Each structure stands twice: as structure tokens, then as C-alpha cells.
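Researcher: I've been going back and forth with a colleague about how Tripartite tricarboxylate transporter substrate binding protein might be arranged in three dimensions. Neither of us has a model we trust, so I'd like an independent prediction. The organism is Rhodovarius crocodyli, in case that matters for your notes. Sequence below.
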Amino acid sequence: MNIRKWLGALMALGLIVPGLAQAQGQTVRVIITWAPGGTTDYVARLYAQRLSQVTGNSFVVENRTGGSGVVGWGAVAQARPDGHTILITDNSIVTVPPMLPAPGFDVRGQFEPVAELVEYPSVLTVPANFEARTMQDLLSIARTRPDAINYGSMGNGSTMHLYMEVLQDLTGTHMTHVPYRGAGPAYLDLVAGRIQSAMVAPPTMLSGMQGGQVRALALSTSRGRVAAFPGVPTMRELGFDFDFSFWYGMFAPRGLDPAVAQRLRDAVNQVNAMPDVQARFAEQGAAPMPGDQHALARRVDSELERWTRLIRDKDIRP
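Model: Here is an independent structure prediction for Tripartite tricarboxylate transporter substrate binding protein. You can compare it with whatever you and your colleague have in mind.
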């Protein structure tokens, strides 16, 4: 029996698992779909660093931007399911594809849910020198001067975009959407005052808020007020039924060996249990998620249906 057949026989018996589980010292590409500087980039690099420590493999982040995330998601969908390519993404993976007539991939059919990672509140943010001091101020400006407020997002159909669309519906206001190639570039223009608002996750803006560059007007979370944002009210406190978070998950190309997926989940849970990781998340108002693939699959299914309806009702197009 030659070596290829011998290894194949061992794999068939479950004595060797292909891909990531086979040995240490391998390189795993971590694809993200947005530019550096945003929360997805932050989350991916944090997990890549700690997963490298836990597994002995090298997790390397690649920013594959373009097409509101489609370029990166498509690259993962077409990759070999051998454990050497994974995706860390925010929930834009369930908001952008329904907007596109032909995204080039099937979220349910071509991605293997591996693990939930972490969930952040969404924070309505303005430049520190902008005239709106409260959310009520911002809404008043939007109602009386409809063209005065431009808000940024990380792309058409992204969570940052659709959350602001929902907010405008709830409040009867109009603001102008300015899409970017990621939350990082949008945030830089927010700080510079070239846009007047954005709905972002804490890692993108927390240091800017603490440094006096931006102001948080309200946040959305089912957990009530967040210690990292003293004095910042929740949307529900202000009377708005607005409960939208930024969640992050790990996916792989469909067909990943279940044993490899389980090793990744186990490693994610080890990372989420690290005291310093938990402390860092707590400082940002985040909550680590349980790392369950079934919960992630259910979340994808329910939110795909929800956002598909909204996108069709509002006729949101790329």
C-alpha cells in the first residue's frame, strides 16, 4: 500500500483528521471582509492571536475588501474545506446578500457555521464638535434640516447601514447614507467631521470617546446600560423599540470535517475563557458568546429572513 492510500485508510478509520487537526505549525487564513481599523478587524486579530497561542498553528488575518463584503465572503465560499481557510465576520453576512440579485454564493449552502464569538452593543455616535448633544438633538436636526446629517457605514446593506435605516423609520427622520469599505474609514471621516453620525460597535469608537473626539448619544443592548459608557442612555430608555447588536461569528467553507470544526470550537471556547479576554470584552460592553454552531446556524436563518423582508420593503439596492 502506498503512502497516499495508507493515509486515506487511517483517515477513514478516524485515526487521522485532515486539515487543521492533523498537526501543529500550520497556517490558517482568517478572511475578513472589511478594511483595517473597524471592529471586525479588531475582533479577528484578537481571536487570531489567541487561537495561534491555543492551537500552535498560525492564524493570519487577510482583509479581503470590496463589494460590501462580497469579495471576502465569496473567497471563503470557494475555498477548500480543509481547515486552512476560515471566515470571521460580523452580522453583515445576513444583511448584505439579500440586497444583491446575484451575490455569487449561498450563505446557507456554502458556509459551515463553526462558532459564535462575541456580541457588542451598537452605539449611535457623532463628532464631539457637532451641535447635537443628545439623541433628541440629532433627531430634531434630522427632522427640520433633512439634508444636514450624513451618516457613514461600512457598505451598502451592512449592519451599520440597515440599523440607521430602521432608526429613521422609528423616528420619522431622514439622513443621507455615505457607504465606505469598512467601519474604520467611516469612523475616520466621523472624527474629521466629514460625516455627522454613525452606528458603530465600541472597539471602533471607545478610545475616541474617551479622548474627546466623538460623542455617544445612545446605545442599543438588551442588557441595559453599559459600564464602559457611563451616562449614555439605551434606546429603550429613550422610548425606542430598537434592539440591534453587532455579533461576530466564525464560518468555514461548507464540507469542513466535523472533527476539525470541533477543534476550532474548543479553541474558541478556550479563548473566551481567558480572564484577560473577558476583561477586555467587559471594558467594551461586550459579551462573549457560547461558541455553539447550532445557535449560530439558527441565528443566521432567522436574521436572513428578517433582513430580507426589510430590504425588500424598503427597496434597498447596491
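Researcher: What would you highlight for our discussion?
Model: I'd start with this: The first strand starts at residue 27 and ends at 32. After that, consider the following. The domain at 121-220 is CATH 3.40.190.10 (D-Maltodextrin-Binding Protein; domain 2).
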